[in-house]
TrEMBL record:
Residues 88-154 form the Phosphatidic acid phosphatase type 2/haloperoxidase domain. Pfam families: PAP2. Keywords: Signal. This is Phosphatase PAP2 family protein. Residues 1-24 form the signal peptide. The keyword Signal applies. It comes from the Bacteria.
Amino acid sequence: MWWRCRGVLLFGLCLLALQCPAWGKDAVEQQGDVLKIALPAIALGATLFYEEDYDGSIQWFQAFVTSEATVYALKKVVDKERPNGNCCSAFPSGHASMAFMGAAFIQRRYGWGYGVPAYLAAAYVGYTRIESDKHDTLDVAAGALIGILSSYYFVEPYQGIQITPYAAGGSYGLMLSGRW
């Protein structure tokens, strides 16, 4: 089991190393660029090195493709100018979508113990996009929502008990589910 955890860590670190050349960007923006790749990469790495089957990998690809295709289509249709005055493609934030897709995948598949740090890292990615003047809050929130919804639609818990918040028909609560 220890070699699988080490494999996931190594996979994530290799992807981080590939993303860290000097881009001429400030440190906050560069950190967001790295984390937007690292979160989904760690999620995919966990399915490849930790799980005994490849159901998680298939679910990851479904969530990733859905999220990215939705973002791409909306960017083409909406054609919103960025806050820094650069041309178009501001709505929604692709960085936020990718980071939150990875975080939501981790949370849905492996639980809140892993999900909370992943969501904090994804929220930081959103912050970096606003701080670097690439997006406003609406762009980031829309990207985050797309990423989360794509994972919630396709991803099932790996094992054990999963607690999920829900809101439907005017009622709110927590749903408890598990595999036995």
